[in-house]
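Figure 3 (text version): structure tokens given as input.
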């Protein structure tokens, strides 16, 4: 009589997930959503495509999850001060707005009309997540009295991320990735919004 003990499946290797998602991001950066091919992702990751389908049965699922990694790890630093919070955030936000992530952003915007559901997921999991973290930093500073109560944290977050995006796009990646540049961005924003100064009416 055979044993009734259920057989255990092979343990899932998390390193494969990491490799596949990294390869999927590269694929999106180069080919966009329309040109995204699971076979190509498998080749980039060095895995059997059957392993990909076992994890992501649908191509769009893989695309959405890959897009969700773009702002992964972006968290509120909670250092207790606006300047040190922003200084910790600049590298993470800069990574969202420099290659390869900015390439994906531009492609997704171009293809938004053709893939509205995927673009919505990209907005939610990458751009909106990034903005929510930055906004929380300014809101916390407001509660500590570091910035004026009348200041809109959402608009301050837009100014901060907009400055990083503009410098990366027009001046080049070094303008947001070099430590000296990151300190300059931080000091400018703190000087503009800090010290509890009320915004002009």
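Below: residues designed for each position.
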């Amino acid at each position: 009589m055979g044993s009734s003990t259920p057989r255990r499946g092979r343990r899932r290797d998390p390193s494969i997930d990491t490799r596949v998602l990294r390869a999927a991001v590269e694929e999106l950066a180069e080919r966009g959503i329309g040109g995204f091919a699971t076979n190509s992702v498998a080749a980039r990751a060095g895995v059997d495509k059957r392993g990909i389908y076992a994890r992501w049965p649908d191509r769009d699922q893989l695309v959405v999850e890959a897009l969700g990694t773009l702002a992964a790890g972006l968290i509120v630093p909670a250092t207790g001060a606006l300047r040190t919070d922003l200084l910790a955030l600049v590298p993470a936000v800069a990574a969202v707005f420099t290659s390869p992530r900015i390439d994906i952003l531009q492609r997704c915007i171009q293809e938004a009309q053709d893939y509205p559901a995927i673009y919505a997921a990209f907005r939610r999991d990458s751009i909106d997540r990034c903005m929510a973290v930055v906004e929380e930093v300014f809101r916390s500073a407001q509660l500590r009295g570091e910035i004026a109560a009348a200041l809109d944290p959402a608009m301050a977050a837009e100014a901060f991320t907009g400055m990083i995006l503009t410098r990366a796009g027009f001046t080049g990646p070094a303008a947001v990735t070099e430590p000296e540049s990151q300190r300059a961005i931080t000091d400018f924003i703190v000087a503009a919004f800090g010290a509890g100064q009320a915004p002009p009416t």
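Residues 116-143 form the longest helix (28 residues).
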